[in-house]
Amino acid sequence: MDSGLLMAFIPTFAAVLALPGPNAAFAVGQSLKYGIRKSLAVAVGFMLATCVHAVIVLSGLGVLIESYAGALEIIKWCGVAYLVYLANKSFFSKQGVTVVSSQTMTVRKMMLSAMLVSLTNPKALLASLMIYPLFMAGTEGYVLQAVALVMTAMFVSFAIYAAYIVAAYKLGRSLSRSELASKIVAAFYLGAAGLLASK
User: Cα–Cα distance between 18 and 24 in angstroms, integer?
Assistant: First the structure.
């Protein structure tokens, strides 16, 4: 793959992911609730969802999905409902975040939840539909370029959301034993649901 195109793809894709949205809000909420180590599963989940979006777009299915906007709308509202459910669960938690974090969500469930949030976010799929084709050169092999873009996108995705998780944890450590922390986590989930609903 053309190295110049790949180097241009990295900051472009990173800028799209770094914009605060449902994924970022979910990553921050999980980090405040479960800490850095466990919450890195969220970054892995978003990375895998990035791979799924890329495969959908680069395999040509993206064009088909774009034709059925109603299906995207249903998927989006499922994601909103899931985030509202998580917000409700956190808001009514009587325990501080540190106590809750010990058993509530397994790493596997956290990773799958992150994938669900990302895959129900139409912004992520639409951004993929717009970005990937811009960085494909007609003179080179399609499969090689597609693999290079997917691997790069997965790396960028993990790095961006891991940075959100680390930053949120460092800023939120002072709240970790307070019942107020559960309310803050709930607010992040509701914020993510609102952002997703507005897309």
Answer: 8
Q: 165: closest CA among 59, 39, 55, 12? A: 39
Long-range pairs, 16-19, Cβ under 8 A, ≥24: 16/127, 16/131, 17/156, 17/157, 17/160, 17/161, 18/160
As a whole number of angstroms, the distance between CA 41 and CA 24 comes to 14
Q: Count of CB atoms within 10 A of residue 130's CB?
A: 12
The highest-confidence range among 1-5, 50-54, 93-97, 177-181, by mean pLDDT, is 50-54
Are 50 and 154 within 8 A, CB to CB?
yes
Supply the pLDDT for residue 97: 42
